[in-house]
Amino acid sequence: MISKYISSGSFKRSCNYVLNKKEAEVLCAVGVRSHDANLMAIDFEMQRLLHASKNNACFHGILSFHPNEKPDNALMVLIAQTYLNNLGVENTQYTIVRHHDKNHAHLHIIANLVNNEGTVISDKWIGLRGKKAAQALTLKFGLISAGEKKKIGSNQISLNKMELVRNEIRYTITNEILQCSSLARLEKALLPQGIHMQFKYRRGTQQIEGISFRKGEYSFKGSSIDRRFSYNGLHKIFRVVELKTKIKDSSTQNNRSKYSQNADSPLASKDNHASRFDKYSDSAIYQNTGDLNSNTLENVHAALAEIWKVAISLPAEDGNYFGHITEDKKKKKRNRDNSMRM
């Protein structure tokens, strides 16, 4: 697999080329509309304005595979996403589009170098870094290297395909495991993605001593996919997930109790802080701003400012209020002033 970086400087030019190419196939679109090239370019440009001084924020990369390789769409998306992560192009808008106009599989990636928080993603030496990332992914996914001229035998192709499936399973489990606290929940999350769990039992008993994962014609022991995914390793992860969930639930319950105790305070009843805070919660901000338009930034900034006004006047944990001097501090100040007069 090889990588090529194009410095186009224009989202409109890149989107029109990539989407309007004959037989172009959009495999993935995050944060942008994928049915129209002009609308996609507008979505990219609107986010670029979060850091308006970054004029060339358009990342356009191409990943090309060896003619003997026939990766499916799911694998191409997985490789492209891993490629972006390796380059540090994360938490941002991007689209992955496959073209069918060559005798080898290849895809185009357009991404925004101004991320979702308005921070610029470094593009220093990004072309060279892209080539190194492609070389690393070639080894990781068992692909055919760009310089390999020799004839690829059927055994080698089969081996490459097996490694691709192994990496697909590893990536899927990694994405799902932190949302699961048991084998049953993990199995439920993996089944829709074509991955089946199989157990190895101790001879003559029903005691599980090992686990494997199967996708299509290939099956792998959990430890051969990743040491963390052995039977015992998975249970260690489940215990951590369960503990984090309990801590989160306990923290949420404590916060509810604390706000309930403060609900009758004069400050809360006077300004109705709870309702004002709910009005400008994160979900409300995104629901109320609607589609991208020229007022989006002003709406978000106004809402954040209102949240801050509410936050600085809410009761602190010790019963005092932010922005106010406590009684102890007032006494110390009076004593200090009296001593200076003496």
UniProtKB/TrEMBL annotation:
Which residue intervals make up region (Disordered)?
249-273
Q: Where does this protein have compositionally biased stretches of type Polar residues?
A: 250-264
What the entry lists under InterPro entries is as follows: Endonuclease_MobA/VirD2
Q: Where is the MobA/VirD2-like nuclease domain?
A: 17-143
Q: In its UniProt entry, what is this protein called?
A: Relaxase/mobilization nuclease domain-containing protein
Kindly list the organism's lineage.
Answer: Bacteria, Pseudomonadati, Bacteroidota, Chitinophagia, Chitinophagales
